[in-house]
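Researcher: Go.
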Amino acid sequence: MIKAQTDNEGFTEAYAQSIQQDKEREADKRLVISFRRNPVLDEEATAKAGRPIHVEKDYITIVAPGDKCTAIDRAWGWPNDERRFGHLYKAWLEKNREGDGRIGTPLAAWPLIGKAMIADLAYFNVRTVEDLANLSDVNAQSVGPIMEWRQKARDFMAAAEKGAVSSQLRKEVEDQKARNATLEESLKKMQEQIDALTAPPKAAQPPRR
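Model: Structure:
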């Protein structure tokens, strides 16, 4: 009778995992995978800057052909994403470098500019208000007659920054008022307690006959 050997080094478990991964890869080949890059509003940075600040994030869409109920659309970076779809993601990155993960106010979120100019500026890799405002004179001339728009972008950022500072000051004043009110209420209660402790004892009332 042959005795079963003990798998002290985990070979059996590793082999089982390998088989499972092979099956998973075969199943994934039947999926339709696509990627896209979306600007996502950064609420904290927006509050600080006083203007919309977006961060570009990558998304993955997973579709099983023939089954409309299994479509998945979500941000890239979930557990196992790299292992299962990393090779497709890297290939997509190589072909789609236009976003470069930049942070700022997208031109599309700037109400002063139209879609045609947004498309024209995108050709020169100008995609945010910050990009436009920070254009050098030489680069601005190569783009075209946009000096006026560059100044509008700079004015927009300056006004937003000024508004953000004013909002922050107002918030600090309101916070200080709230702290003062709380402190005043605490002092009032403490004074009431002191008055109660230091008040002279009341004279005893004579018994009624």
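Model: Residues 31 and 175 are 54 Å apart (CA to CA).
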